[in-house]
Every structure is written in structure tokens, then in C-alpha cells.
Amino acid sequence: MVDKKEAPILSRRERELLRHRGEIMDAATSLFSENGFYQTTVQMIAERADFSVGYLYKHFESKEQIYQATLDFHHGKLDEAIADVRAQGLPPLEELYRTYEAAAAHFNEYREFLRIYHNTIEVGKEDKPRKHEEHRQDLVSILDRAIAAGEIKPVNAEIMASAIFGAAQELFKTLAKRDGENPLAPLPGTLFELLIDPVRLKPSSKPA
């Protein structure tokens, strides 16, 4: 979970501390996925990461703080991925496809976190509705642009954005339970087949 973009500007000691912090977060995520958040203890996390409890507390005050840091990490990575797609200046529907493609690629690498993200955990509860609403409003904007560009029929963008967001959430949960190297890969194609293609006016611009 080390951010490789930051590593070159850090000292060797700082890189080591960042790596250890990531190892603790990864160990916690695995245990949360296996046992549940509330059944996992700081002692268990320290043992899984192969650190002492005292050393773990040098990085985090509690398991709640570990989860919050992990949540922030994934939100940040998804924000980066969305910004990268948006910067390409793609047609609206291709931007939408590529956005979900990037999210699926990220969570294929971090499936254990995705499996616990949708569980009822009090930590980070304030962040989720805010991030969800940000994403839903991004969908509204993309759909409005797709309508203006003549890519899809005139629809209620607010309602359709909610439908896409809800379907994506359920697909993420369902596909994350599957085994295999790339179980989330079908997600963008499935969303388009179910919700976008029926209202499309122009030929598909999504990747084959």
C-alpha cells in the first residue's frame, strides 16, 4: 500500500516507515475480511504484520484509525484514477466506461478491502455518504453531457445516475466474492449492457 509516486522524494528511513505502515494496513484488511472488524484485535493485526503491538501503536492509535487510513488510501486512489480518465477528454460514455474499468482494476488488486467496505462498520461512516454523493453527481454530469452529445436518449439524469450507482455497488459486492485473477473485469460491460445500451443513440464507443 505504499504510494510509489511519493517514494522517490522520501529518505530511506521515511520509505521504510511508509512501507511498514502499508504492511500494517494490509494485515488489518486481511483480518477484517477473515474475521470481521469487531472480532479483530490490535494484537492480531500486529502478529499478522510481524510487528510488536508497541511498534504498531507508533503508526496508529487504534484499529479504527487503521481502517480510516485504509479507507482514505482507497478513496484517494479512486479519485486519482477518475481524474486521470477525465483528463483524457474522452466522449462522455467512453469516460464512464473507462472510469468503471479503472475502479474495477483497482479493486481487483485490493479485493479483500472491497469485501469489507460494504459491511456495517461505524468507522468512516461519515465519509461514505459524502464520497457516494460525489460519485453520483459525477455520473449525473457525464449523463447530461452524453445527452447533449446525442449519445443517449433524453433521460432523467438524476434517476439514471442513481440506478447506475446502485447497480455498480451490488456488482462490486457480488463479483468481489468470485475467485480468479480478474473477477471484477466484467463490471463496466455489464453496467453498459443493462443500463446504457438500451438508451444509446450512437454506436458503442466502449472498448471491445
Describe this structure in words.
The chain has 208 residues and is mostly helical. The chain has helices at residues 12-35, 42-49, 53-59, 63-86, 92-109, 111-117, 127-148, 157-176, 187-196.
- Kindly state the mean pLDDT as a whole number? 88
| Biggest beta-sheet profile | none
Query: CATH class of the largest domain, please?
Result: Mainly Alpha
Assigned CATH superfamily of the largest domain: Tetracycline Repressor, domain 2
Enumerate the spans where pLDDT stays under 50 for 5 or more consecutive residues: none
**Helical content class:** 55-70%
Strand/helix succession: HHHHHHHHH
The fold-level CATH name of the largest domain is: Tetracycline Repressor, domain 2
| Estimated share of beta-strand residues | under 5%
CATH architecture of the largest domain: Orthogonal Bundle
How many angstroms does the end-to-end distance come to? 31 Å
What gyration radius follows from the Cα positions, in whole Å? 19 Å
Task: Give the helix tally.
Answer: 9
Q: What is the molecular shape?
A: elongated
Which structural class should the secondary elements be placed in? mainly alpha
Number of strands: 0
Total number of domains = 2
Secondary-structure map:
Blueprint: H1 12-35, H2 42-49, H3 53-59, H4 63-86, H5 92-109, H6 111-117, H7 127-148, H8 157-176, H9 187-196
Properties at a glance:
208 residues, elongated, Tetracycline Repressor, domain 2, 2 domains, 67% helix, Arc Repressor Mutant, subunit A
